[in-house]
Specification:
about 575 residues, alpha+beta, 5-stranded antiparallel sheet, two-stranded antiparallel ribbon, 19 helices, disordered N terminus, binds adenosine monophosphate
Length: about 575
């Protein structure tokens, strides 16, 4: 059966909520409750002290075959597989925050054992590598079995806070799901995944994490733009970390094959392991679970729209059941605010995955998930109602996000819809850097009494940095934005918030630093020459994306003109 849901148009909407400034406090409280001292938590552990609890492979059905032959895997959630050994691995970078999640010390991360483990050369006791089976809709079409073609799971760690973290190597060799590809990854896409996972975390966006980035010492052939110009590139492996890597497509594959028993096993496992607060699986709990997936997915999209992130390949196999950003491929960051922009060259024709479509596509993907779990519920109406939860959560989240982005107290229905709509109509009129625009808007501080005496030009002064082409600022444009800025300042005045408070609020949700496309490319260019300093510098910079970092102003500047049409900066392919 196919649910026929009428998607509400979210085109050109944005969204969001705040990042997580309270996270440390929550952690501190949790640690106090379970009686761990700060010393014990500061990552003093070694690889040998990791506690593995490989529940996924213990509780779910395995593929009986253990060869690495490419195949259709029936009635199984995963296949056991071994990472390929590599000749001359070299550590490029690691994330100390992700290491701390695993209780790993800095000393461990800098050891040869760590490098050998996280390129897949030597597996410490407790690791049981496997690749999972999943399917997916790619660009709107059912693609059948996909699976972890080049991702190899190492097992699940229970850390000292009793959190479960699954470890996964990306690019460590082919699996039974590799289809016609080689199971490898190149340095450029691995740098992008590593840096962006960590940048997103520090921005407060739900995401999978990255522990390490290493070169394999081997060359990998890629035809970057699929135009008959293959090149050898350095191979690399990223170790990703997440509570679970289960995707919408993990459920779809079993539904598509009528393997309802395995579908139920995976759903029950997921609820017990990742949604334990919902209680024992039942028809009612499946629905509550789906509603929660709708809510967390809406929350994630709201965050993407807040920071200007475009995933680029929102296929259902790239949608996490936990509402985490997953599978960093040809993603991009909005520079000039253009809702129709897609970073993915494969998507350039249809623009299915452009910035402004993301809310609508997430809903489409949730409809596919609803179809997949229908055999467990066998009722259409409650699934449709759950899908409405997505729409409501998104709209609510988007409103809250806009309130925060503009530094307001609360949403005022009489004025604010119009205020937000007009702003989003103005932003794409001329090339406007989204990140700089919101940051500079916080600086605007005008006495309301004098608003009518100030010229549009003076009013716009703080925003000038955000414009790419000053000649586009016509009289008509200046009048329109001048009118909007005056309405905005009057609206702010109604709230009676001080300029200082408004700036603080806005700067807590509007980042100063994001992983601009050209910055990632500069780090890649250097890394390909054996210089990893810019990878390190960006990793450090993006630890504090909301703070002013006075010696790093250059990284907050507009995209330079040379990057406007350069491959890797403005257009990316799926080749990775
Ligand atoms: P992606 O577009 O990265 O989400 O990948 C889609 C599917 O292709 C997934 O099943 C991946 O595991 C698989 N895949 C992508 N690149 C490779 C590769 N180089 N080797 C094997 N499988 C791959
Ligand atoms: Mg994928």
């Amino acid at each position: 059966m196919v649910l026929n849901i009428n998607l509400q148009k979210h085109q050109n909407c944005f969204a969001d909520g705040a990042h997580e400034p309270e996270k440390c406090d929550i952690d501190t409280i949790q640690n106090a409750i379970i009686g761990l001292s700060a010393k014990e938590l500061d990552g003093s552990g070694t690889l040998e002290s990791l506690t593995f609890d490989n529940r996924f492979t213990r509780e779910l059905p395995a593929d009986p075959a253990t060869t690495n032959q490419r195949r259709q895997v029936i009635k199984a959630c995963y296949s056991f597989v071994h990472p390929a050994k590599v000749a001359a691995p070299q550590l490029v970078a690691y994330s100390r925050e992700t290491a701390a999640l695993l209780d790993l010390s800095i000393e461990t991360c800098e050891s040869d054992d760590f490098l050998q483990a996280f390129v897949g050369n030597h597996l410490p006791a407790g690791m049981e590598p496997y690749a999972t089976c999943y399917g997916g809709h790619q660009f709107g079409n059912w693609a059948g079995q996909l699976g972890d073609g080049r991702a190899i799971n190492l097992g699940e760690i229970i850390n000292q806070r009793s959190e479960r973290w699954a470890l996964q190597l990306k690019g460590a060799g082919p699996t039974p799901y590799a289809r016609t590809a080689d199971g490898l990854a190149v340095l450029r896409s691995s740098v992008r995944e590593f840096l962006c996972s960590e940048a997103m975390f520090h921005l407060g966006v739900p995401t999978t994490r990255a522990l390490s980035l290493a070169l394999t010492g081997e060359q990998v052939e890629r035809d970057m733009f699929y135009d008959g110009h293959p090149k050898l590139e350095p191979g690399a492996v990223v170790c990703r970390v997440a509570p679970s890597f289960t995707r919408f497509g993990s459920f779809q594959i079993f539904a598509s094959r009528g393997e309802t028993e395995v579908l139920k096993q995976l759903a029950d496992y997921t609820i017990r392991t990742d949604f334990p607060h919902l209680g024992a699986p039942s028809q009612k709990v499946y629905l509550e679970w789906f509603q929660e997936v709708c809510r967390t997915t809406a929350d994630m999209i709201v965050h993407w729209m807040r920071v200007g992130f475009v995933h680029g390949v929102m296929n259902t196999d790239n949608m996490s059941i936990l509402g985490l950003t997953i599978d960093y491929g040809p993603y991009g960051w909005l520079e000039d605010y253009d809702p129709n922009w897609t970073p993915n060259t494969t998507d350039a024709g249809g623009r299915r995955y452009c910035f402004g479509n993301q809310p609508q596509i997430a809903h489409w993907n949730l409809v596919q998930l609803a179809n997949a779990i229908y055999p467990l519920i066998e009722q259409v109406e409650p699934l449709q109602q759950a899908l409405d939860v997505y729409t409501q959560s998104f709209q609510q989240g988007w409103q809250t996000m806009m309130v925060q982005k503009l530094g307001l107290n609360t949403f005022e229905p009489d004025t604010d819809d119009a205020l937000f709509t007009e702003l989003h109509a103005i932003l794409p009129l001329v090339e406007t850097d989204m990140t700089i625009f919101f940051r500079r808007l916080a600086v605007l501080d005008v006495n309301v009494e004098s608003l009518n005496d100030i010229s549009d030009e003076t009013l716009m002064t703080p925003l000038m940095e955000a414009y790419y082409v000053p000649e586009q600022l016509t009289r008509e444009y200046r009048t329109r934005i001048g009118y909007w800025l005056r309405s905005y300042m009057r609206r702010v005045c109604k709230d009676n918030t001080s300029g200082k408070t408004r700036r603080r609020r806005m700067n807590a949700v509007n980042p100063k630093y994001v992983l601009r496309n050209y910055l990632a490319q500069l780090a890649i260019d250097k890394a390909e020459q054996g210089d990893f300093s810019l990878v390190d510098e960006l990793l450090e910079l993006l630890r504090h994306p909301y703070d002013e970092q006075h010696d790093k102003e250059d990284f907050a500047k507009k995209r330079p003109d040379w990057a406007r049409h350069r491959a890797g900066c403005s257009m990316l392919s799926c080749s990775s």
